[in-house]
Write a structure and sequence with these properties.
The chain contains 13 helices and 17 strands. The strands form three sheets. Strands 1, 4, 6, 7, 8, 11, 12, 13, 14, 15 and 16 form an eleven-stranded mixed β-sheet that branches. The chain has a four-stranded mixed β-sheet with strand order 2-3-10-9, with no helix packed on it. Strands 5-17 form a two-stranded antiparallel ribbon. Helix content is 33%, strand content 22%. The chain folds into three domains: 288 residues, no CATH class; 107 residues, no CATH class; 47 residues.
Length: 470
Amino acid sequence: MDYKKLGFKCGIEIHQQLNTNKLFCSCPSSNLRDTKADVKFERRLRAVAGETGKIDIAAQYEMNKSKKFIYEADSKDTCLVEMDEEPPHPINRDAVTIALEVSKLLNAKIVDEIQVMRKTVIDGSNVSGFQRTALVACDGYVETSKGKVRIPTIMIEEEAAQKIEEKKDSIKYRLDRLGIPLIEIGTEPDIKDPEHAKETAEKIGMILRSTGKVKRGLGTIRQDVNVSIKERNRVEIKGFQDIRSMPKVIEIEIQRQKKLSKKEDAHVRKIEPDNKTSYLRPMPGAARLYPETDVIPLKVDIKKIKTSELIEHKIKRYEKLGLTHDLAVLTAKANKADMFEKFVKEFRNIKPSFIASTLTSTLKEISRKYETDVSSLTEKEFQEIFKALDKKKISKDVVTDILMDYAKDKFVSFDKYEAASSEELEKEIKKIVDSNPGLSIGAYMGMVMKRFQGKVDGKAAMEILKKIMR
């Protein structure tokens, strides 16, 4: 399709959970638990007029459904604030600091004072009937392959409760997720085509992950897409979990808009499993906002805000250390990037590429191929292994075995894996060659590795074998 000729307009909104305690209380910000709920209550919600004196059309739409809302929670991650039985505490300073760092990375102008607003939400996902939200910065941008994409607003707000069951007359929510800090980043309609939307989302996601202070995993980041063509009103498509589907969903939506026989009102749509979209609710507007009188405005001081190195810059730096591009990407995006850099400085006798592959691909191989849970491994275990390897107490070939023993809580000592000395290795290789004349170098090498069961460095063994066979 000729998107320019169609009058294609597209912007995205990104919602990313921050890795701190909750935004307006000190509860931990865990996701939905599998534990049995020990808190249960019910509510019915109604819309109120916003600052303009009008009731928001989307809020009225939800209220007309007249549904009862059932709330469950684990008291380990919730308190009276989430239940709307206690006023909000002061805004979480750690979350604000992260939002300010992201704003600087997005070249945005940071506000002088953060003032919290209430945004009416009547679908039950907020017990109080509103979501707390605040402007942090404005007028930013991100560079892409097709030019700058402007970012008019960066907000910090509360995550909603998680829906776990819906019936004809009621909806059940779990409150563990409610109140987790979110940063919301919205772009101008500067996106040129569906693939450009995906690229822009990836670039902003990379910047968020570069801070090392955002949550990772399914459900911790969501993208909404606003899209239209000429003579058609804007449609908001909610809840992309996997941005790989974004271009296809946008393309299908444009095809739908092209086929419209009359002009439809702006509205919100949801994504179906086949990448088509369906009507969800009317488009909300400014009428849903009004001031939050329970939270004191926060003066902003950006002097101490430091920005993290972008992942794309780390990748280039890691390639200079000898990592392949793919390994550099894997390492820079992994949650062990700081550990990698620490070990590279500490263990000079080990190639950075081996340290990187051990912390990334080796762990994946152990998990998938050997079905061993490696989540219990800590920095302490890796440090001990690399220290032994750096001092040539063990060989690289036994590192996988040691990691597996650590993971299974079977590790005793490094003596079990201690590398053979150069003298012992040469003596044994000569004995193997003399006892088996006429074999290929590959066959001898296999016999050597089998004899030492990985307790030798393969490269060193090959050099000795070549010397003996001259």
